[in-house]
Structures are given as structure tokens and as C-alpha cells.
Amino acid sequence: MNRKVLHWSYRDFRQMPEELRACCDQVEEVYLKENFIPSIPVWFCEEMNGLKFVCLAGNMIVNVPEQISLLKHLESLNLSQNLIEVLPKSIGKLRNMLSLKLSENKLTRLPKEIGALEKLEILELSKNRFSELPVELVNCRNLKELIMDDNYLLCRIPTKLFLMPQMTFISAERCNLVLLPFVVNTSTLEHVRVFNNYTLTHYPIALERFMQPSYESFTAVEPKRIPKSCYYQRISCDAIAHNLIFPIELTTILDRRKYTHGPSSLVELCMRRFNGTAIVRAAWLDSWLPDGLSRRLHNGPVGICGSVPCSKEIFGECFLGLVRR
Asked: I need a surface site. Which of 3, 135, 267, 298 has the fewest CB within 10 A?
């Protein structure tokens, strides 16, 4: 038997076995899956600090101690199928971590310090209670797999996570996603799975190559839909019966008819300055300037509503994204 690997799963332990202390210098991998261990004792972190692989899945762990950071050689930690509600900030000190599995717990958030895990490659968060993910995850530059299935409160995923340099697999099935990012890292990303997000009505062209044929028939309404208006904005349009949905990052939405303050950007200031002048009406302008800039000069410093029946000027600043309905 390999003295460095200890398989003590399915043994009906009611606490962390003290016998581990007798071999703390010899063991690198510990499997304690499917027991009844309620907590990770401090002595485990202090005396077993040579561990590289720990599997505590399927126990009854409620709290993870701050001293978890003492396991400085840890490369893989599996805490799935427990009762954990909060992760300590010290989790960010496990700088050798390659795989972190936290599925089937009661987590509602991740500490921002998790972004310090620069070597992390696999992060599993399925079946928790996340409503959002920290954007600090983008600092995990080597992250390749991010799995978030069955987080029914999750309404959005930070766009930057789809742009990470090593990301190959993202899965957020059976969540409550309202919007998907319009830009992704197409050089490394191989799989995007967002099945059964019934609040999605569109998917961006950038993600079209990842979509399966069944995505052609999105169901826009579900009886058990959980609205989370704090993560997106609904803007009504008089020309059509539907609302327009925008991410919460679009913090300023202005009605030109009511907006009397000065513009907030240099580009908009220039547009306002030129709008209505003789140079805008010059015949040579369209051929001399790029189409986008020419249209902005003709239409003024505000955007045009994308609804054809409407086409009113409504935004001071906005993002334009192509989608397929």
C-alpha cells in the first residue's frame, strides 16, 4: 500500500480521526469521503501541512477554519456535498491550489481573496446559492474550468470570466441567467453550457458556435422564474410591447427629452459641438469619415433606440451588441 495515500472513506467517522496525527509526516493524500465529520479541526491544518490532496466530500462540515491556509502545499481540495455557508478569506493563501470543488453546499458568496489563487485550474460551484460571482476570479489566470450549474439565484456571470486567457469550459445550466456576454475568448474556449436558463431570450452571436440545436427554441417564461431586478435593468419602449433588458453595468440611462446636463465624455462633447453645424451637412463628410462616426455626427450625441418602429434618441451613452433572437 502506498504510505503517502490514505483511503478512509465510508468508515462512519463522526469526527476527524485522531489516528491521522500519528502519520502526519508521511501522508500526502487523504480520502475521507462519505463520513459524518462535522468540522475540520485546527490540529488537522497545523499538523497535516504536508498534504497535497484532501477529499472531504459527503460529510457534514459547516465551517472551514481560518487555519486552512496552513495547508500551504495543498493542490486539490474537495469539500463538495457538505453544509458550508461561508469560506474564510484565508482560502486565498493556498497559492499551490489547482482544483477547488465546492459543489452542493450552502454558499451564497465567494471571498474576493479567492482571486489570489493564481495556479487554480478547476473551480466547481454547482448546487449552491450564489447570486453573483466576484470579478476577482479573473486574477486566477490559469483557470480552465468553471462549473456553476444549479445555482437558481445566479442571474449573471461577469463578462471578464469569458475572456480569461486559459478558459476552456464554462457551465451554468439551470440557473436564472438573464444576459450572456457579447464577447468571449474564442482562442481557448471550447464549451459553453447554459441549458435550461428560462430567463434567457437571446444569445449573442459571439456564443453561437457553442449553442446546440435545441437552443433555437428558447422558452422565455417559466412559472417558477425568480426575478432578480438588482442585476439587470428593464427599460420600456413605447413602440413595442416588450421591455428592453440591459446589464446593471450600464449605470446611466438618459432620456434626451428630459436630460439637460452636459455630456459625460469627451467624445460626446465633440459630437454635441459638431451637431447642427454646417460641416455636418457637407456632402463630402460621409466619404471622409468612418461610417460609425459619420452617423453619430448626423444623428447627434445620443444613441438611437434599436426598435425599428421607435428609433427615438434615448441614450447618452450605451453599448451596442448583436444578438440572435
From this structure: 3
4-210: CATH topology is 3.80.10
Determine whether 150 is exposed, middle or buried from the number of CB atoms within 10 Å of its CB (0-12, 13-18, 19+): middle
Cβ-contact 89, 64 below 8 angstroms: no
> Residue 112 burial by CB count (10 A; 0-12/13-18/19+): exposed, middle or buried?
middle
Contact 81, 104 (CB under 8 A): yes
Taking CB atoms within 8 Å and a gap of at least 24, the contacts of 61-65 are 61/37, 62/38, 63/39, 64/40, 64/88, 64/91, 65/39, 65/40, 65/41
CB-count exposure of residue 138 (10 Å: 0-12, 13-18, 19+): middle
For 77-94, the pLDDT digits (tens) are 999 999 999 999 999 999
pTM of the model: 0.68
Residue 48 Rama label (left phi>0; alpha psi -120 to 50; beta): alpha
Give the residue carrying C-alpha cell 456535498: 81
Q: Which amino acid is at 1?
A: M
For CATH 3.80.10.10, the residue range(s) in the chain are 4-210
